[in-house]
Amino acid sequence: MKPDLFESPDYYNIDDLLTDEHKLVRSAARDWVKREVSPIIEEAAQKAEFPKQIIGGLAEIGAFGPYIPEEYGGAGLDQIAYGLIMQEIERGDSGVRSTASVQSSLVMYPIYKFGSEEQRKKYLHKLASGEFMGCFGLTEPDHGSNPGGMVTNFKDAGDHYVLNGAKMWISNSPFADIAVVWAKSEEGRIHGLIVERGMEGFSTPETHNKWSLRASATGELIFDNVKVPKENLLPNKSGLGAPLMCLDSARFGIAWGAIGAAMDCYDTALRYAKERQQFGKPIGAFQLQQKKLAEMITEITKAQLLAWRLGTLRNEGKATSAQISMAKRNNVDMALKIARDARQILGGMGITGEYSIMRHMMNLESVVTYEGTHDIHLLITGLDITGLNAFK
Ligand code: TGC
Ligand code: FAD
Questions:
Q1: Which atom belonging to ligand 2 lies closest to the Cα atom of 366?
Q2: Does the beta carbon of 349 lie inside 6 Å of ligand 1?
Q3: In what residue span(s) does the Acyl-CoA dehydrogenase/oxidase N-terminal domain sit (predicted)?
Q4: In terms of DSSP H, where are the helices of the chain?
């Protein structure tokens, strides 16, 4: 793979809206990605292996629990800093960002928000340092977009619960130490349970043959009469709203992360278009290529502004779930289109692992599907503006 020469586009001087702390956090994440991710990520993706050696570095740049308070091991940063970290990591690879998103927003966040003080103390520091890795089990084989229909369930067996069911498409499951699992009680109410590797009847088979997110490990969670101690139930919120609150946080991070992937594709294509000569001049001099590049920077700039504004709303506690859906949907779609156009600018070279573009493009096919599909987020906007529910 080529050396990482990435330079971040900032066409509207959005840096002026950032604090010194934001820039410092971003710069640490960017330098780390250049040093530790870019040199190894192509090979990891080609081999379909999650590069476990980067876990310590992710923890050091604050990617595990950026906004979780420091007393619980998090970095205690604001939402824009969280977004910027996700942007820089996904600039390297969406699969690496996935690992960080899951750990922060889908494992640490529910334990912090809905967990008991004992659970916070037991797990959060270890998750922040990467000593423990976690995963989040919501999706089931027959319940993806409609998680409320889940059949995974637990029964009260006196001093413990007995958990049965299966989850599918679970990021980090093959190596996770703990899983935050969403399951129905005997009354049909959804609760979160912390399931630990090693509990009898709990297995995590890996999903192979993915063309996307190859540097991220994906698998199943199988529960066959797993005895879960009662103290592992998250006590402070139940109902579908609890996992959906976690998704709000992860979707926000993805809205930023996708900008990173798009910026990397744009930067690579721009550089290539200025260097590659055909018909006696750089291909960047042809109007058709300029149109692609000009539209890319326009869309990136719009996405940056959307993410920044959403970050300020999140900081003020004012962002709605529907606003988050709009940003996730828009920014991932924007990145996917940019990846496709950027690949064309590179001609044949665009399909090789010499450049990051094809990897980003394939990764983004997952990103546009997970955390709510492109269509589901459109329907969330539709419901928000009309008051009419197209889901049911
Ligand atoms: P609905 O009846 O609308 O809502 C049920 C209850 O939840 C509340 N609620 C929310 N609460 C907090 N945040 C949100 N975003 C919320 N949206 C809804 C709602 O008020 C209600 O509360 P209550 O008290 O009245 O019960 O639910 P529904 O069954 O109609 O479904 C709505 C729908 C389709 C939007 C939702 O289920 C959905 O978002 N589906 C998509 C599923 C999804 O995104 N799955 C993601 C799985 S995790 C993942 O992909 C990780 S990828 C790994 C990585 O990030 O790298
Ligand atoms: P389906 O729900 O079957 O949807 C199929 C198609 O039908 C989609 O185009 C969808 O938009 C459309 N559709 C569905 N309902 C409607 C409707 N009402 N109106 C119009 N169109 C509709 N889940 C987790 O819980 N944890 C994880 O860590 C996790 N990681 C993942 C990692 C990867 C690589 C992938 C690919 C997925 C991951 N997921 C995870 C699951 C992901 O969230 C689901 O794939 C996603 O929510 C969609 O569910 P589904 O695949 O079952 O598709």
A1: 36
A2: no
A3: 19-131
A4: 20-32, 38-47, 55-60, 79-92, 94-101, 109-114, 117-129, 241-275, 287-315, 321-345, 357-367, 374-386
Overall fold of domain 14-129 = Butyryl-Coa Dehydrogenase, subunit A; domain 1 (1.10.540)
Q: Whose CA is nearest to atom 4 of ligand 2?
A: 145
Two structure tokens written together for 54 = 């980067």
CA of 313 to the centre of ligand 1 (A): 20
Right CATH for 241-386 from 3.30.590.10, 3.40.50.1820, 3.40.1160.10, 1.20.140.10: 1.20.140.10
At 1 the pLDDT is: 64
Residue of 391 and 225 predicted with greater confidence: 225
Predicted TM-score (pTM) of this structure: 0.98
pLDDT in tens, 49-60: 999 999 999 999
Number of H helices, E strands in the chain: 12, 9
- Sign, CA dihedral 81-358-251-263, equals positive
Q: Could you tell which of 244, 314, 328 is best to mutate to test the pocket of ligand 1, judged by most ligand atoms within 8 Å of the CB?
A: 244
